[in-house]
Amino acid sequence: MATSAAESPSAKRRRIDYGKDTALIDGLPDHISEICLSLVCRPSLLAAVCTRWRRLLYSPNFSPFSSLYALFVDSNSDPAPGHARVNPAIRFMCFDPVSAKWDPLPPPPPDPPLHRILYRHPSFISFNLPIQCVSAAGKLFLIAGSNRELSPAISHPLIFDPISSTWTYGPPIGAPRRWCAAGACGGVIYIASGMSSQFSSTVAKSIEKLDMTDQNRTNWEKLREMRDLRFSREAIDAVGWRRKLLMVNVKGDAIKEGAIYDVVNDDWESMPEEMMVGWRGPVAAMEEETLYSVDERKGTVRKYDEEKREWGDVVMVKGGEEMLKGAQQVTADAGKLCVVTVDGRIVVVDVVAEPAKIWTVEIPEGLEPVSVHVLPRMSRPDIC
User: Fold this and answer.
1) Which H or E run contains 36?
2) pLDDT at 2
3) Residues whose CB falls within 8 Å of the CB of residue 342, separated by 6 or more in sequence, listed in order
4) pLDDT of residue 84
5) So where are the chain's domains?
6) How far is it, in rounded angstroms, from Cα 37 to Cα 53?
7) Residue 172: which of 153, 189, 156 has the closest Cα?
8) 121, pLDDT greater than 60
9) Interatomic CA distance for residues 244 and 267, integer angstroms
């Protein structure tokens, strides 16, 4: 008793922080404490309280907070004058908002080797070959890319599960392809059109899905084919929106054609002209309910009003448009847009704020972002 009474405050703190049997919240069972702590909106606040709360954040038993995942390529692979272009290495990383730092994902399986996926080709001076990733059902999917022979580099998707921090193979794709439309709706992955090793009208009109919500279905399923071949010209996003997939076949200001796939009725329809005019850059759907577009030339953000069937400008803080010029890819989650720009930046737009706030995420030195995705945080055994 005398020893206990004489225990210093610092010793008590150490016992609370590092003892295995201390309660998360005094007077409450841990399972009740976990429910209470999960209601805190900012994980960084929990991490700042004590070591055990910080360990809890990364525990598989605790509701995971959202983190930013990115596919990077080495930006230091640009050739010297007179030398051929070098294919940069591909890297997957996760930005932890609690520690505010980038962590590498575990290495993917060696087959197919990532170095076979081409981002730059010596035959193309200023054109980067697309590498297509999709996020769905809390997982990241590497779907399509090209190899050195300009054939499909991926025959089956690579899938990363953040909760277990592991990579697995997906089932073989019925018709491997590149330069396709890839997207997700309701936890289901879709790939449509594109090219195989050589142009094939069958592949260019086909669409397949992989249902990640159905544990009994483990293979790709062929769906009703597209009405024409005009969606195999370049890699495009298939945007999941209100149980439909929205696809526009050309990027930029060129003349476009749009198609809508009804995932419930397995049917195709043309995209209304007033909806298609918003495709002046990358488009994403917030919670698959609200469409946002980023004009790659002007840097403006627009929101689609389905009742009025028109796009309206989102008012941003002064200088926001300049930061978004050259937008290449966008993802939307929790009231924010995460945008990859042509000059190698990741820009975040808070579209809930009025005017919309905007800031950049510092990226690792020597890396160039290709695409970004929002997924649950990785489990961290080193912290847990």
Assistant:
1) helix 30-38
2) 43
3) 296, 326, 327, 328
4) 54
5) 66-376
6) 9
7) 156
8) yes
9) 10
Across the chain, what does the average pLDDT equal?
A: 86
Q: Which two tokens stand for residue 370?
A: 């290709």
Q: Quick one: residue 289, left, alpha or beta (phi over 0 = left, psi -120 to 50 = alpha)?
A: alpha
CATH fold of 66-376, please? Answer: Neuraminidase (2.120.10)
**Token pair of 296, please?**
């790659």
Alpha-carbon Rg of the chain, whole angstroms? 23
Per-residue pLDDT tens over the stretch 227-238: 888 888 788 999
Nearest to 330 by CA among 294, 367, 376: 294
Task: Kindly state the DSSP code that residue 188 receives in the 8-state scheme.
Answer: E
Strand partners, 350: 336, 357
For 27, left (φ over 0), alpha (ψ -120 to 50), or beta? left
Q: Could you tell me the pTM of the whole model?
A: 0.86
DSSP at 145: -
CA distance 74 to 26: 49
Beta strands in 79-220 (DSSP E): 90-96, 101-104, 132-136, 139-144, 158-161, 166-169, 181-185, 188-192, 207-211
Give the contacts of 6 (CB within 8 A, at least 6 positions apart).
none
pLDDT confidence of residue 17: 45
